[in-house]
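Sanity check record (used in CI):
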Amino acid sequence: MLMQHVDGENKGKIVLFALSTCGWCKKTRMLLEDVGAEYDYVYLDLLQGDEKQEVIQQVEKWNPQLSFPTMVINDKETIVGFNEDKVREILG
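Expected output for Glutaredoxin family protein:
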């Protein structure tokens, strides 16, 4: 899977599933950078074929509605949509 990495402070394993055209996804990325967190992200809409299907299956495990952004923290906590308060609460 073509994950992009953004350097920052290690605040756990953070994976952001997003769409390149989504304003809320962009705001979520800006928020992660504001709190200084290291994270990986993938833009689902830029993928094709098997790779796209693989990412869709991953997102559906955490967010059956398949809405974006979907952020997974330490493979156990999910934040769906733009939720600044929850992100700041979890990541400081």
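The chain has one domain: 4-91. If this sentence no longer matches the regenerated tokens, the check is flagged for review.
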